[in-house]
Input
Amino acid sequence: MFQTDESGQAHAIEAIAASILVLSTVIFAIQATAITPLTVSTSNQHIETQQQRMADGVLSNAKYTETTGETSALKEAVLYWNTDKKVFYNASADGYLGKYPDNDFGDSLNETFSDQRIATNIYVTYERPSDGSGTKQMVDMGNPSDNSITATTNVVIYNHDEVSAPDESTTVEDTSGYFAKDVNPASNVYNVVEVRIVVWRI
Output
């Protein structure tokens, strides 16, 4: 009888030890795989860094990729203007709503962002002949999220640069319909504009 009680106690102790071991393993596994605020923050930071590189890259490529002559894809987009309607070609007064322009820059934006489900707003800020500056929106895809990122670059427009929209054959110097004006008539530089891209995941 004494041996039987001792055996029962041993089994009970083994069962308790096994339960503690299993419980400890489960707790460790939960702690190891738990999603903490830091985990989420790190993931968001990775996404934002990737989007920043994409935005910087598409601007850089468009700025230095020539289309015709010495005109880059980015400058062509800035000059893609309907002088009669005083809007970007085939756009509304608020820019291209929910879409990209039908030019090389627009194609690059579409290839870079559309498949990634990334929305884009694009603004062109220009100098005014008097003090201050103005801004024209090129692309409008809504209100950016709190995790949006921004990339910018400058484009120099010269007096002899031609408006690039179809059926336009005038230079910016010779038209009164272009959104940016000549800030220094004594110089060959017509204006210096800043192109700003704001991107966010949708």
